[in-house]
Amino acid sequence: MKKQAIERNEKGLTLVEVLAALVIIAIIILGISAFFSTSVKTTDTTEKLLDASYVNQRFMEEVYRVTESQEHGAWETELLNAGWEKPGNQERYLKDSSGYYIELTVSESAAGSSLYNILMKVYEDSTYTKLVSQMETRRQG
């Protein structure tokens, strides 16, 4: 009789087995949730980079149009008319658009040269410290 009672008690799961299964499931779920968290951060970063690159490309095309149709001396007037600000005497122009802050720098490629370097940087903060995108080209002036 004792043998039959022992055999009946061995059917089913013990509390230890159930707890072990729950621990394994919890570990798997934590691993998957960490993956999704990283994926969301990467997606946000990529979206920000794409937006900044689009803003950079759009304003670089605007500057390209201005430099294509004007001599170097007339660039400044056209840029100021297009909403760019020029703080100081240097060839540096600032503009903010779509939540980004754009810095445009125009410099001579070499002394006496008619080529000009045009560097456009897009920042995500108004202090111009967090660079998100950058483009550079040369134009005849």
UniProtKB/TrEMBL annotation:
PROSITE patterns: PROKAR_NTER_METHYL. Keywords: Competence, Membrane, Transmembrane, Transmembrane helix. The chain crosses the membrane at residues 12-36. Its main location: other. NCBIfam families: IV_pilin_GFxxxE (TIGR02532). This is Prepilin-type N-terminal cleavage/methylation domain-containing protein. GO terms for biological process: establishment of competence for transformation. Pfam families: N_methyl. It is found in: Cell surface. One of its GO terms (cellular component) is cell surface. It comes from Bhargavaea ginsengi. The keyword Transmembrane helix applies.
